[in-house]
Amino acid sequence: MARPLLFLQSLGPAETACELRWPPDIGAGVEMGMDDHTFRVEGSGSSSRLLFAPCFNVASYFIDRHVPQGRGDKVAILSDGGGSVTYAQLAQGVNRCGQALRELGLGRGDRVLMMIKDAPEFFYVFWGAVKAGIVPVPINTILRAKDYKFMLEDSGCGAVVYSPEFAGEVETALAQASPAPPHALRTEGQGITLASLMAQASDQLDLCPTSPTEECFWLYSSGSTGTPKGTVHCHRDMVVTSQFFAQGLLNVGPEDVFFSAAKLFFAYGLGNGMYFPLWAGATAVLSAQRPTPDSTFGVIEKFRPSLYFGVPTLYAAQLAALENGKRDLSSVRACVSAGEALPADILRRWVENTGLEILDGIGSTEVLHIFICNRQGQALPGSSGRMVEGYQARVVDNQGQDVEDGSAGRLWVRGDSTAKYYWNNPAKTASTMLPEGWLDTGDTYYRDAEGFFYYCGRNDDMLKVGGIWCSPFEIEAKVIEHPQVLEAAVVGQSDENGLVKPAAYVVLKNAAEACDGLRQELLRLCKGGLAPYKYPRWITFVEELPKTATGKIQRFRLRQQPQA
Ligand code: 3UK
């Protein structure tokens, strides 16, 4: 029998006036009378939603349920460093780690920063904290000391746990941070480490009685400009993305083996490589190596995953490698791409070379995972696909009015996994997290009559050329069609009249082939295949493109380059 719904208005100790609007009333509901730590799906299609018990700690579903369900001996994690972890061992490691953090003095709502490589201890710290009501903050492991110093100070964390591999930058930051966090621990090595504390800690841990909209974990968003923003997610959010994207769209099951080239510290990798497999009672393959074509193909051949998650730059590099020699991808049933738009040509060539589609989907740190995506058997080159169940989107003009299908506008999205607020940043919270639950993605998109969405660029990357909007991405996609091109980035630069025109920066598969003849060929390709005003007025061959740590092209850096 349906019970009356109550929506959580404001729960959790950290909520302040600016956060009270969030979560909005369309947020995932709470149903009184449900057993603690349970949830259920109600409705179907775009109106389906999840209802949660008022007392809900997400570690119950993702960690604690597996042993009672008879999955104790099943392998949860396979590491390329060797070794495997069963579901029973995982639950024990989580308990010991949560206890160790509690014994350090951390309590409900306190943050623990994690600079941890893709390995089982990432799971222990993340879930040990969540289960204890402590808030884990996975951090990009290839940042520099000055970035870490900012995050240490901004988060006001109670502890930092890091892999010895990253000690150089992390310890430099710790020495400079003011105030320094009370505790800093290496995961392993000499002296007191996470491993030594875990060895002494109890393997029993109570589940902290959190609520579904209480702070669960943060991720620092990897903006290509400005300082990173602590994006606060709550306990229900991983359930929502797992239900609607992993289950609903990828149809994940216990027999799946997941491998994500995108690392766990990235919202994309966190789902792909950690909580989707735990959702399905499946197996996660972890690699601590830098993702190169060779290392990723090596992992795929050795561990035979059924699901592979990459990013466009890596797919492009993998294709270049595949064109020089076959690799075995026979275990893979689906490939997913996100992080930036997948050029149509990469998808076509991947299908040609492997017989597999790549499902391109757009996600964000704020939404937590993918909310618009292509479906298996229907991947449309050049499109991000259609709405994922459980999410809604609008394409609007600068006044917030819906634009017609086929016209570009700002993409707004709504769904129950969106972040509650940005830590310490009410202005950015207010400009991104809008009334009625809408979230401004910062992207320009258009939607066609069939409901497919097409990426046009970040709002601030769009160019006006001769007064007409021009998507840098469309020009890049054209340049990439040339067989000698590996990657390209297009930005607006001023011509001799001070008018903005597209400039292309091109990375060749073989840098030695750069010459004027090739420049002319690329120009012909663009003039032939694009609206006349869109061809790049300058083509510069470069060794590599400036990128963020998560692989997004930093167009603002290219814009700063003087044009000859
Ligand atoms: C861009 C895309 C076109 C877009 C992410 C999957 O990338 C993720 O999160 P971030 O916060 O960046 C979000 C922004 O990246 N973007 C992502 N995917 C696509 N643009 N096509 C795509 N397929 O600008 C978006 O606003 O780093 C991706 C899952 C979780 C994620 N956090």
Sum up the structure in keywords:
564 residues; alpha/beta; Rossmann fold; GMP Synthetase, Chain A, domain 3; nine-stranded mixed sheet; four-stranded parallel sheet; 28% helix; globular; binds 5'-O-[(S)-[(2-aminobenzoyl)oxy](hydroxy)phosphoryl]adenosine
Structural class by sheet pairing and helices:
alpha/beta
Oligomer description = single chain
Look at the structure and give the CATH class of the largest domain: Alpha Beta
Radius of gyration from CA coordinates: 23 Å
- The CATH superfamily of the largest domain is ANL, N-terminal domain
Description:
By secondary structure, this protein is α/β, with parallel strands linked by helices. It has 3 domains: 58-210, ANL, N-terminal domain (Rossmann fold, 3-Layer(aba) Sandwich), CATH 3.40.50; 257-414 and 447-458, Rossmann fold; 464-559, GMP Synthetase, Chain A, domain 3, CATH 3.30.300.30. The protein has 15 helices and 28 strands. The strands form 7 sheets. The chain has a 9-stranded mixed β-sheet, with helices on both faces. A 4-stranded parallel β-sheet has the order 7-6-8-9, with helices on both faces. Helix 14 (516-529) links the parallel strand 27 (500-508) and strand 28 (538-541). 5'-O-[(S)-[(2-aminobenzoyl)oxy](hydroxy)phosphoryl]adenosine binds at residues 221-222, 267-268, 338-341, 360-365, 369-370, 384, 441-443, 455, 458, 550.
Summarize the structure.
With 564 residues, the protein is an alpha/beta fold. It is 28% helix and 24% strand.
List the helices and strands and how they pair.
Blueprint: E1 29-30, E2 39-42, E3 49-52, H1 59-64, E4 75-79, E5 84-86, H2 87-103, E6 111-115, H3 120-132, E7 135-138, H4 145-155, E8 159-162, H5 167-176, E9 183-186, H6 194-200, E10 215-221, E11 229-234, H7 237-247, E12 257-260, H8 267-280, E13 283-286, H9 293-303, E14 307-310, H10 312-322, E15 334-337, H11 344-354, E16 358-363, E17 370-373, E18 386-387, E19 391-396, E20 409-415, E21 421-422, H12 426-432, E22 439-447, E23 453-458, E24 463-465, E25 468-470, H13 472-480, E26 485-494, E27 500-508, H14 516-529, E28 538-541, H15 555-559
Parallel strand pairs: 1-3, 4-13, 6-7, 6-8, 8-9, 12-13, 12-14, 14-15, 15-16, 27-28
Antiparallel strand pairs: 2-3, 4-5, 10-11, 11-21, 16-17, 17-18, 19-20, 20-22, 22-23, 24-25, 26-27
Helix pairs in contact: 2-3, 2-6, 4-5, 7-8, 10-11
The structure holds 5'-O-[(S)-[(2-aminobenzoyl)oxy](hydroxy)phosphoryl]adenosine.
